Amino acid sequence: MYKKSIIASLMALAATSSFAATSCGKVEIADMNWNSASLMANIDKFILTNGYGCDAELIPGDTMPTSTSMAEKGQPDIAPELWTNAVEALINRGVEDGTLSVAGKSLSDGGEEGFWVPKYMVDENPELATISGIKKYAKDFPSSEDPSVSAFYGCPAGWACQITGGNLFKAMNLEEAGFELIDPGSSAGLSGSLSRAYEREESWFGYYWAPTAILGKYDMVKVDFESGVDAEHYKGCISEESCMDPQVTMFPPSPVYTVTTANFKKSNPEAYQYTTQRSLTNDQMNMLLAWMEDNQADGQYAAENFMFTYPEIWSKWVNKDVKAKIDNALDSL
């Protein structure tokens, strides 16, 4: 009897220890108010719920309030897609204070900015892949309003990229080459100008960024400024409205990370490990965003479609046991 009691106690202890090691508990995930971040949040919710047994919940979020709340209040537990340039000092302070942890790159390429031309133009004239070629063939980009000048579509007024794009326009002497800097008026105006040109196979040259649905739909080439990246000059001058002597530099990538609370990392090491592995390239995210737009899908619907359609991507983020649990969950949908 005594021996059986010991065995029973050991089995109960082993079961309790196993539960403690695998139990995840409640996890709050910030659902940011742009499509790529909402998609990432919903993917995390699905995988953490079905693969790791978490009680995952999405809560509304945005860059500054979410990162501040995580650092000061320990809530939410995860910010799946945080563009850290805007909150770099806050994140660094949180890591130093032991309240935050930077997990993995949610966008492995980082946020991408550049000046772009349609691939069909580059296929016809490969020189258009470089800024020297763009300037040489400036007349190939006539403005629809005034064909005597060439059109460069910049950022809408009030956007930060209006400053950086304007300074680079000046640094590359594009006005002297015959280009006019056009304010598209809005994000819709900018994307609309690109869409119209592409659908008609007309010329287009302008600023755009990734990941975006537009660059998922249309095959565009980022123009090489033939300068490399000077991150220090970009930060100290190109990004400043008062920049007096702008020099040519490619846009440095914007770091985009998954950030968690230090408590989540400590309490859920296996789930935290997943957040260090989960990452998408810009090409992958562009494709997913284009699908979202074409199907008018919200983050949840897009996440479920992603899980069904691209197991070759997400299966690399988890181990075999977790994958089996997720496969079972997908079979039940």
UniProtKB/TrEMBL annotation:
Q: Where is the ABC-type glycine betaine transport system substrate-binding domain?
A: 26-307
Per the UniProt entry, the signal peptide is 1-20
Q: Which residues cross the membrane?
A: none
Gene3D superfamilies assigned to the protein according to its UniProt record, in alphabetical order:
Dipeptide-binding Protein, Domain 3, Glycine betaine-binding periplasmic protein, domain 2
Report any Pfam family annotated for this entry. Answer: OpuAC
- Write down the SUPFAM superfamilies for this protein, in alphabetical order: Periplasmic binding protein-like II (SSF53850)
Classification via InterPro entries: ABC_Gly_betaine_transp_sub-bd
Keyword Transmembrane carried by entry? no
Q: Enumerate the UniProt keywords alphabetically.
A: Signal
Protein name (database record):
ABC transporter substrate-binding protein
